[in-house]
C-alpha cells in the first residue's frame, strides 16, 4: 500500500463510505469508529467480498472507490485512476483527527460539495464523460423463477406462472438456476425439465421474451465440464484449481475464458441460447471470471474478465439484454445493460448467521441505497426482485425500497401465492416509470 493523502476530519461527525468489490459485497457509509462489515470465513470472502483483499480489521477499505466526509467540509472521493482496468484496494485509517489514505495502485483524489451520494454521482458523471458512455437502455420488466422455487424449479412451475401473468405487465420470463444438470453444464437439462428449448418456445408463444440464468465462469467440481476439461480451469501456482467458493454442496472452480477451448464453449452455449430465441441473460457469480491465478493467456484478471464479457455480448447478439450479478462493479462499466447492486432479497429480513452478504432484506436494502448513484450512469440498477406474497417479512418496506431504488423491475413470486395486496403491489411496481437517475 502506498500513501495517497491525509484528510483532516472532525472525528465526531466524519463518515467513511466503502464501495465493495461485487454485487453482494456490503457497501455502505460508516460514522468513523463504527467497524465495517467483514467476511466471517474464507469462503464468504471469496464468494461475497474479494478473494485477494485482506484489510486490517481497523481499516476502512473501498475496492476502487472510497469516500470520506470529513464532517466539516466537502466530500473527498478517492477512486482508481483507471476504473475499468484497475481496481486498487483503497484504505482509510482514522488517526486522531486525520483520515490517512493509502492505495495499492494509482488513484485520483477529488473533492465535491453535497452529500456522499451526490459526490459519488459527480465522480460517476466524470467517468461517464471521460469514457463517452451512452445512456443505458431502459430495462424490460421480468418474472424470475428464483425467489419462489429456488433450485427446485420445474418446467411445470414455469408453465403454471405463464398462465397467470396475463394481467401483469411482464416483458420477459426469466428461468433462473435449476433448469441445468450441473453448474457449468448449461446445455444439459436437469431431470425436472423435459424440454428446455421447448419451454422457451412456449414462453415466446405467449408474446413474452425468454430469459435465462447462467454462471458462465463457474465450474462445479461435480460437472461434466470439470471432468472433461481440467485444462480449462484457472490454476494456482502449485497447479491446484483456484477456488471460486463453495455452493450447491460442491467446490467451485473458475473457467479460464482465455483458453481457446473454454472460449469456444462459452460461444457455443450462448449461441445455442440465442438460437432458442433467448434474448435476456442474467449472468451470475461472474466475480469468478476476475479471480487471480494462472491463465492460458498472460493477461490481468480484469482484462480476462472484460474480454470474456465482450465474448458473451458478441454471442448473445446486440439486441439481447445483459444483466450482471455477483459482478465486480467497476470492471463491468460499459459491458452490461443492468447490474445487481446488492445481496439477494429473501423471505426473512435478517440473513442466516446475521451475515449481511447473505440473502435477506437487511443487506439488499443497505447496498441498494448505497449504490443509487450508479443508476442511469454506468447501467440500470437492479435492486433485486419484488417479492410480495404473504410470509415475506416486512414486504411493505421491501416494496417501498424497490419503488424508490428499482431500475430493473422484476417479480419473483409464484403468482398463485399472491394475495390482493401482493398482486396490486406487483402490478404497481412493474408499471411505475423508472427515473433516469436516483441521485440527480
Ligand atoms: C441462483 C441465485 C439467484 C440469485 C443470485 C445468486 O453467497 N452465496 O453463497 C450466494 C449464493 C447464491 C446467491 C447469492 C450469493 O444468489 O443473486 O438471484 O440467481 O444465485 O443460484
Provide a descriptive summary of the structure in words.
- By secondary structure, the protein is of the alpha/beta class.
- It folds into two domains: 2-131, no CATH class; 142-431, Aldolase class I (TIM Barrel), CATH 3.20.20.
- The protein contains eleven helices and 22 strands.
- The strands form five sheets. It has an eight-stranded parallel beta sheet.
- Strand 20, helix 9 (361-370) and strand 21 form a beta-alpha-beta unit.
- The chain binds 4-nitrophenyl alpha-D-galactopyranoside.
- 4-nitrophenyl alpha-D-galactopyranoside binds next to helix 1.
Roughly what is the average pLDDT, rounded to an integer? 98
Number of domains: 2
How helix-rich are the residues, as a percent range? 25-40%
Look at the structure and give the CATH class of the largest domain. Answer: Alpha Beta
Total strands:
22
CATH superfamily of the largest domain: Aldolase class I
Tell me the CATH architecture of the largest domain.
Alpha-Beta Barrel
Q: Which ligands are bound? A: 4-nitrophenyl alpha-D-galactopyranoside
What would you report as the Rg, rounded to the nearest angstrom? 21 Å
Structural class: alpha/beta
Shape: globular
In the sheet with the most strands, the strands line up as 21-20-19-18-14-11-10-22
Separation of the first and last Cα atoms: 34 Å
Low-confidence region ranges: none
CATH fold category name of the largest domain:
TIM Barrel
Q: What can be said about the biggest beta sheet?
A: 8 strands, parallel
Count of alpha/pi helices: 11
